[in-house]
Amino acid sequence: MEPETAVATVGHAIQLSVAPVFLLSGIGAMLAVMTNRLARVVDRARAVEARLSGEAPGDLASSHGHLRTFSRRAKFINFAITFCTITALLVCAVVATLFIGAFLHFDAAVPVAILFIGAMSTFFAGLLCFLREIFIATASLRIGPR
């Protein structure tokens, strides 16, 4: 391969991979939000668990209810993080496939399309889990005195 052709091939592969790389930035931001939410849920659950031994018997049921809610929220955030991480891996595979296709001179359209559809499907699933966690959080929200 001529050096000018090789540079043009690399340049074209970089142009094609710019959009997926920006998508990775967005997924990274979503993962940061989700991990922060998970950390807050874990911190709140630990605080409730620490108070369990000194609570009156009448308050134990309420505390156990809060812990069940925290557990459900953590489960859905964990699913969301897992799906979004898989999304990021699939997007990385899209970029790698674009470069491999450019260097090995094969039509990468079908593998790239399949990987991208997989990435969008897992991102969709991750956002649904994240939305479910938000619904659980707002349903258990208590503002003001009881």
Task: Note the main attributes of this structure.
0% strand; mainly alpha; single chain; 146 residues; 88% helix; 3 helices
Characterize the structure shown.
- It is built from 3 helices and no strands.
- It has a domain at 3-35 and 74-139.
- The model has no long low-confidence stretch (mean pLDDT 89).
- α1 (3-52) packs antiparallel against α2 and α2 runs antiparallel to α3 (109-139).
- 19% of the residues are buried.
- Helix content is 88%, strand content 0%.
DSSP helix count?
3
Extract low-pLDDT stretches.
Answer: none
**What shape does the CA trace take?**
rod-shaped
Please state the structural category.
mainly alpha
Main sheet summary:
none
Please state the CA-atom Rg, rounded to the nearest Å: 23 Å
Q: How many strand elements?
A: 0
Order of helices and strands: HHH
Task: Classify the helix fraction into a percent range.
Answer: over 70%
Explain briefly what this protein structure is.
By secondary structure, this protein is mainly α. The protein is 88% helix and 0% strand.
Topology:
Elements: H1 3-52, H2 57-104, H3 109-139
